[in-house]
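This entry is passed on directly below:
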Amino acid sequence: MALHSATLCFRTVPAHPRNSVKLGLITVKPSGFSCPVSPPIVRLNVKGNAYSGDGAPETNESPLVVSFGEMLIDFVPTISGLALAEAPAFKKAPGGAPANVAVGIARLGGSAAFIGKVGEDEFGYMLVNTLKENNVNSEGMRFDPGARTALAFVTLRKDGEREFMFYRNPSADMLLQESELDFDLIKKAKIFHYGSISLITDPCKSAHIAAAKAAKDAGVILSYDPNLRLPLWPSAESAREGILSIWEIADIIKISEEEISFLTKGEDPYDDAVVRKLFHPNLKLLLVTEGPDGCRYYTKDFSGRVKGFKVDAVDTTGAGDAFVAGILSQLALDLSLLQKEDKLRDALKFANACGALTVTERGAIPALPTKEAVLSAMLKSVS
């Protein structure tokens, strides 16, 4: 199946009235690190990698990674294994996939910025303060006085399926306009990271396209994690079209097994030939996350698998974002990883450890690990 994209061209989807609220409920197979696996069989060799053994950055100032998209409040049940309607109480936690990545990079000692929009409300102020407290550049954040900050309720049921319920349409993140973008910040980045939720409706869709084009024109590496959330799209087909419409501008793409099946209309996500259909001519790295089993990687010249880590999972929210933060933090320091398989594999072990540690606590941002914690976990796994 050839995947042809109409680059930077989207079907317009009408926004809901500003005074309306749309609820979306979905159950999906977990793609997080939700069950234990054996530790990596390859012994960690810290010397010569993008990260240093003592946890200190190798450069005085890390290259900037700018994330773009949604930042919201996740509500996670205080008791695991229950459906949303059965949960007696919820813990509020800052989240949103691109924001999780930004904070994850900063926690790992990297330089990160986030561009997005929140409501001019208590939750919005809380989210911007969260960025500042985690040393994430928030100059690109905007407040909307007429829309609320988005909310999401997330749980992992006993049957292993995740449930999501979103309170948005229109939430403030959907209303970011091109005129509100900080283009100077975007052009300073070494990597520009984004998802697909910001592509669903205008004006944020147009802002997304303009931001990605500005980054591309400035020679910035583009990183894309579709982060499929079907209830937020008008239909499954519009989600597939929207996600693929910007596929061929990305330099790095991270997808899950479920997203491969969705994008290829049901083909086997474990078949390398199927995955290779998603590898476009200009792509530098395609990553497939397999939850507790680790990840697969594909470049033009080589491919392989890196095993995951054994942990006791509490909440899988944010595990994939922590993985992305882990690998982007390493690529920002050393893009030669894209050509050197041994170094890439070591960086992916680091990313897998980031994801694994994140599932040991509730919430996404509260659970994102530090570089010291990740390196300690990696060393323990081979001791």
About this structure: Residues 1-60 have pLDDT under 50 and may be disordered. The first helix runs from residue 97 to 107.
